[in-house]
Design brief:
Strand content: 15-25%
Helix content: 25-40%
Largest sheet: 5 strands, mixed
CATH architecture of the largest domain: 3-Layer(aba) Sandwich
CATH topology of the largest domain: Glutaredoxin
Number of domains: 2
CATH class of the largest domain: Alpha Beta
Order of helices and strands: HHEEEHEHEHEEH
Number of helices: 6
Structural class: alpha/beta
Radius of gyration: 24 Å
């Protein structure tokens, strides 16, 4: 007596089971890609207009500093780390910008010795480098990663923000016009 063919052997269900891990992996990858890809400038507009957070600050050398000590003139606040490859890529532009506008470094979750060694070898564009080893200031700012650059007004208001590598074109279109505005 001939048995009825089993629809699970070599059939549609078997093919689906065989491809399921690949399909699931592709769907998870697409979801992750969508979640991590910024939509327009929404990330770069977050937090603008509010004042720089008032927290006790410490420089890489261990000196105490207040937020108020940074105020009185516009400056760039650049969030960086010695272990960050993108920070190293934008470093030459920061050296150039540091000649025309004050740049304050916010060393994010880094070892002070590693940060000092990097600045000694690559050059230091910063007027002062703040040590944010515990990430408190970055968290208060809403930093999402390194590098990240903020333009801070003379009164301490956050005027512009860019997440990612700062380029000359971004500087000229997004940041420089704000320095020229009355």
């Amino acid at each position: 007596m001939a048995s009825a063919p089993n629809r699970y052997q070599g059939g549609t269900v078997s093919r689906l089971i065989r491809w399921f891990p690949l399909l699931l992996g592709a769907a998870l990858f697409a979801l992750l890609w969508h979640a991590l890809t910024p939509v327009g400038d929404a990330r770069n507009d977050a937090g603008l207009g509010r004042p720089l957070p008032t927290l006790p600050l410490t420089t890489l050398e261990g000196r105490s500093l207040t937020t108020e000590a940074l105020l009185g003139h516009p400056f760039l606040l650049n969030v960086w780390a010695s272990w960050c490859a993108n920070c190293r890529a934008e470093h030459p532009l920061l050296l150039e910008l540091g000649e025309t506008v004050p740049v304050v470094g916010l060393n994010y979750r880094d070892k002070p010795a590693a940060a000092q060694a990097w600045l000694t070898s690559a050059g230091n564009p910063y007027r002062v480098v703040l040590d944010d080893g515990d990430g408190r200031l970055s968290l208060a700012l809403g930093v999402v990663g390194t590098p990240e650059t903020w333009l801070v007004g003379a009164d301490g208001r956050l005027l512009a923000r860019h997440t990612g590598i700062l380029t000359k074109a971004l500087w000229q279109t997004r940041f420089a016009p704000l320095l020229e505005a009355p």
